[in-house]
Design brief:
Blueprint: H1 3-6, H2 13-27, E1 30-31, H3 43-53, H4 70-84, E2 94-97, H5 99-111, E3 117-122, H6 127-134, E4 138-151, E5 154-161, H7 163-169, E6 174-180, H8 192-205, E7 208-212, E8 238-243, H9 244-247, E9 256-260, H10 262-275, H11 281-297, H12 304-324, E10 329-331, E11 338-342, H13 360-372, E12 374-375, E13 377-378, H14 388-391, E14 394-398, H15 403-414
Parallel strand pairs: 1-12, 3-4, 3-6, 6-7, 7-8
Antiparallel strand pairs: 2-9, 4-5, 8-9, 10-11, 11-14, 13-14
Helix pairs in contact: 3-11, 4-11, 5-6, 5-10, 12-15
The structure holds pyridoxal-5'-phosphate.
Pyridoxal-5'-phosphate binds at residues 35, 99-101, 104, 125, 180, 184, 212, 214, 243, 245-246, 251, 256.
Length: 416
């Protein structure tokens, strides 16, 4: 069976994106749907690339080592050796890819064999599921559940993993788990206790961890990002994926990476060399420069990563404030670029009868785009068929947008 035949077409998330783009063309809405900034990148970012593009060094414009340009591999290895407190070898343990999507593709295709079970935490970035199916693997779902908590006499909802359920899903057939933290779409950042629990299960059942940490630079204080590969006994069984373009807010630049034990990385390296050969050389050099500079500024107020955290935290808080005042209940994200909001209270006051979709969120999102020119994203797109019903009253907002865009959206939301 061909790879594409293995991909169950009606669960292919790209189908929805196409429809979404068509709606956007037709209604020209304020866009808080897809996850990318609607503003220009910082000057030092575009200057770094311009500098490479006008370089008179011939090699800066030609093929480079398929594993990644040495300067970028060195910069990334230095950065992650620091974060993990483990020496990451740029020669054996670091691979540069064409975006983290390619790293993900190579990880799943390279490590999963037909019949292998792979655990995913739902709702999830559905490309995980498509790839598992393409590899002939079997996705096993465990869902995040909303728990109401009280703190400082205020009620707030938090995403929790049911430990009994996750314990039961690990078996001798389990080959891997995909751990996405910060998590898309919920914005959950897994804490040490949760990661240790999962790490212990990986060790007990000899399971590989594919750690998707593409939103690692978007973790809002006081929360901190914990890399599962840094936990005892985990580096050797974890492939960690990251994204330079997400880290610097230039999603179109598509340079990602994977790091991990050489035995695991070897599978990705071979695939990568056959699919892409090498990711764009000038982009790699530009990112190398940025990571070198960031390394020297880590933790300082002048660091771009620090500035981004502050800026995005302010945007998040603004939109959470707006949503809290209307009949939508936002679930405060600890990381990432999205806020989920519960629309249950609003439903009795809106007429969705013109929309023929199966799930409430799909109807609501279309209604909002067509009737009020505000585009958001449905959460059932991130769920397997059997689980969609549990999440259909949630919609997703992207807050990595200009303040003026957020204000335009706020105006629409206040007048719903
Ligand atoms: C969780 C997650 N992983 C991976 C990706 C792929 O990112 P990219 O290919 O832009 O690096 C995305 C994109 O939105 C994502 O949300």
């Amino acid at each position: 069976m061909s790879l594409i035949d293995r991909l169950v077409r009606n669960e292919n998330p790209t189908n929805y994106i196409k429809e979404y783009e068509e709606l956007a063309k037709q209604y020209n809405p304020v866009d808080l749907g897809l996850g990318y900034p609607d503003y220009l990148p910082a000057k030092f970012i575009t200057e770094a690339l311009s500098e490479v593009l006008s370089s008179e060094c011939v090699d800066d414009h030609q093929y480079t080592n398929p594993q990644g340009h040495p300067r970028l591999r060195n910069a990334l290895s230095k950065m992650f050796s620091h974060h993990l407190n483990i020496n990451v070898d740029p020669e054996q343990e670091m691979l540069v890819t064409a975006g983290s999507s390619e790293a993900l593709f190579c990880a799943v295709m390279g490590l999963i064999a037909p019949g292998d079970e792979v655990i995913v935490i739902e709702p999830c970035f559905m490309v995980f599921v498509s790839l598992i199916k393409m590899a002939g693997g079997v996705p096993k779902y465990v869902s995040l559940e909303l728990e109401e908590n009280f703190k400082d006499s205020q009620s707030f909802a938090e995403w929790k993993l049911d430990r009994k359920k996750i314990e039961q899903i690990f078996t001798v057939k389990t080959k891997a788990i995909i751990m996405n933290t910060p998590h898309n779409p919920t914005g959950k950042v897994f804490d040490m206790d949760e990661l240790t629990f999962i790490a212990d299960l990986c060790k007990k059942w000899n399971v590989i961890c594919i750690a998707d940490e593409v939103y690692e630079r978007m973790v809002f204080k006081p929360k901190t990002h914990i890399r599962i590969a840094s936990l005892p006994g985990m580096f050797e069984r974890t492939v960690t994926l990251g994204a330079a373009e997400k880290s610097f807010g230039v999603t179109g630049w598509q340079i990602g990476w994977a790091y991990g034990h050489p035995l695991l990385l070897q599978a990705l390296r071979v695939l990568h060399q056959h699919v892409v050969f090498n990711a764009s050389t000038p982009l790699q050099i530009a990112f190398a420069k940025m990571f070198e500079e960031e390394y020297d500024k880590l933790g300082q107020t002048t660091s771009y990563f620090e500035e981004t955290e502050k800026d995005l935290r302010e945007k998040r808080d603004y939109l959470v404030g707006v949503l809290s005042k209307i009949e939508m209940k936002p679930i405060l994200p600890q990381g990432g670029m999205f806020i989920l909001a519960d629309i249950t209270q609003m439903l009795p006051h809106v007429d969705l009868s013109s929309e023929k979709e199966k799930f409430i969120d799909l109807k609501f999102v279309k209604w909002l785009t067509k009737q009020h020119r505000l585009q958001t994203f449905p959460v059932t797109i991130f769920c397997s068929e059997n689980n969609k019903k549990s999440y259909e009253n949630l919609i997703r907002f992207c807050f990595v947008k200009k303040q003026s865009t957020l204000e335009e959206a706020a105006e629409i939301l206040k007048n719903l």
